């Protein structure tokens, strides 16, 4: 009987094992996980709800959500994309629902539905799951099979091997993979929030705007989206997107940089000035603190008045043009010194990993070592938040399973 070993008991490992066991009834599928827990990230993901995928059904658009791997995923998504994920789970009686921002969750609203579902499927298909075993070394045998060295006495041999061990920001954690001849693109964290220590802004924690534009000073990196003020700095989709697209660059800057914020990107400077002048004329007797001409939270408006030394009890009529210009400039060209980053609890990933140049994306097989396959975050692929990282795991795992299945069933 042929034997396949899957390394990693996460989303990609389970998805490969299940699809493979379905395809190859007479193949022994063994899944090895280093911790004593399975599907840990699936369980904690999406704040315990598991953001399984994203309701983006155009592959051209879908790939634009991957700062790394988008090009390679284009062909991969033509084989297994978001619609296939939805169908795959539906066929197995797990329905997904879409939220207004496009994120898709299990209808039950709990990640346990996904984790328990995958565990049950693996069990029903006789996947042999072994926990608390760490793969330490891969020995490539003369007949192109593998012998795996672990941190225990267990040392299985297998005909095909899939590495689905996830990402890790520590470069040395990839040594056992590097020893097979594969290159590892230096891993750095992605999806984090910005620390702005000792700034009055953080007193507004909890305040958010639905649409802001941020730019990392002296770079071309610019993102838009909701922006959230936290007790340590800035978060929200605009920041997370910047942290993903700029993961490597911001790491090189040692997370010390200036972030420029445009709190009202839908206005041009001239338009905003005209609006303020008209508002001033028609609200001359009203106080500026309680009467804001633009759609921003009241606390943020008061913060900007304070920042530009405008007394909020003053009447609009008494605000000189110079101060109005200063206020407009702050709303459109605000800036903060970022010193450090904080992990975004909802989702974080690794930028970097196994070089994509060495992988055949039609099967996920290594171009260097026959019978060796890769799936999930261990690859140099990562997406922005919203379900794109799991979609990478489902897609690459499904292709790996088909690739191995086809070669076994030939
Ligand atoms: C808190 C958090 C929330 C997230 N939420 C979402 C979300 O809602 N939506 C989304 O799309 N993405 C989310 N992500 C990202 C997503 O979870 C990952 O991209 C995805 O889990 C990657 O799957 P994987 O199977 O490749 O790796 P992992 O899930 O990391 O699984 C790899 C497994 O391999 C094991 N392993 C590692 N090395 C070895 C070894 N040498 N031997 C044996 N086993 C080994 C690890 O212990 C681990 O269990 C979240 C991430 C985090 C951290």
Nutshell version of this structure?
The protein has 410 residues and is α+β, with helices and mostly antiparallel strands.
- Biggest sheet statistics: 7 strands, antiparallel
β-sheet strand percentage: 15-25%
* Global outline: elongated
Number of strands: 22
Computed CA radius of gyration, to the nearest angstrom: 25 Å
CATH topology of the largest domain: FAD/NAD(P)-binding domain
| Proper CATH architecture of the largest domain | 3-Layer(bba) Sandwich
Helix content: 25-40%
Instruction: Give the tally of structural domains.
Output: 2
Main-sheet strand order equals 17-16-13-14-15-12-18
In the predicted model, the low-confidence regions spanning at least 5 consecutive residues are: none
Can you say what the CATH homologous superfamily of the largest domain is? FAD/NAD(P)-binding domain
Distance between the termini: 15 Å
Mean of pLDDT: 97
